[in-house]
Amino acid sequence: MNWIKNFVRPKISNILSRREVPENLWVKCPETGQMVFYRDLEANQFVIPGSDYHMRMPPATRLKSVFDDGEYQQIDSPKVASDPLRFRDQRKYVDRLKEARQKTGRDDAVLAGAGKLDGVEVVAAVQDFEFMGGSLGMAAGESIIAAMQAAVARKAPFLLFVASGGARMQEGILSLMQMPRTTVAVEMLRDAGLPYIVVLTNPTTGGVTASYAMLGDIHIAEPGALIGFAGPRVIEQTIREKLPEGFQRSEYLLEHGMVDMVVHRHELRATLSRLVRMLMKVPEPLLVPAPDDAKSVALIDAPVHAQGETATESTH
């Protein structure tokens, strides 16, 4: 055994290859190449200040940005078989899962929680593209279904932030089965008369787009998000034609009636709050003078009765 080659040299290489700063201290804008300090990017809701490019937002951070005071109750997902088909391509599927779990700190690609949005109870779920491309497998499907069932049980609107590359090929037909199963869960929301609002983020593609991502009551897209079934490159190769500028991007889909609105991330929470209140027939907060300062105002919700009428209206 050559201890210099097998022990000393790797130690020296490890010392020389150490970075003086963390890898994520600076983030590069994919569009302009602008370098942004990570903490500044985080404070700006992961939107590049110069170009307005919307970077991917971590699921936990996304949920905190939606719920009041960033507080929510996480909805547990049912346990499923990790590798039902014992699939292997270039690597074992179990190894890919292990790597994704270490990278993200989560069991799978969906994080769901329940809490208040400007005083109104809602249930929200977020797909994590960092976990195997946000692909839809058995665990992700069960998480989405469990979140929708929780919304029905709580009589609360359901918000879904979608980011996915499609079905998870390592689970084969079991992955494809999640498409009709989640569709049935969407029908449960409809039968209960509860709003289902979908926020399409970059990217939203594949079988997810062909399923629950396009079944919402209202579809909101973040600026510049890629949304479609097959990617632009695949379509160009199939039809052998050049696609229009901005094809399958949020703004293009808005012009062609595929989404209801494109909303900047800084305005997203206020938009969701307004839609939830409108669809649930909850009155907007009233502006009244604060008792300690006549020039300032305080937000006070009007009492809500069974038919959504205010206390004043119920007396007549």
Labels describing this entry:
316 residues; two-stranded antiparallel ribbon; seven-stranded mixed β-sheet; 19% strand; 2-enoyl-CoA Hydratase, Chain A, domain 1; 11 strands
Structure in words:
It is a single chain. This protein is α/β, with parallel strands linked by helices. It has three domains: 1-44, no CATH class; 56-279, 2-enoyl-CoA Hydratase, Chain A, domain 1; 285-316, no CATH class. Helices cover 34% and strands 19% of the residues. The chain contains eleven helices and eleven strands. The protein has helices spanning 3-16, 38-43, 59-66, 93-104, 138-154, 172-176, 178-191, 232-239, 250-255, 265-279, 311-314, and strands spanning 26-28, 35-37, 73-74, 110-117, 120-127, 158-164, 196-204, 218-221, 261-262, 286-290, 293-300. Strands 3-4-5-6-7-8-9 form a seven-stranded mixed β-sheet, sandwiched between helices. α5 links the parallel β5 (120-127) and β6. α5 (138-154) packs parallel to α7 (178-191). It starts with a helix and ends with a helix. 32% of the residues are buried.
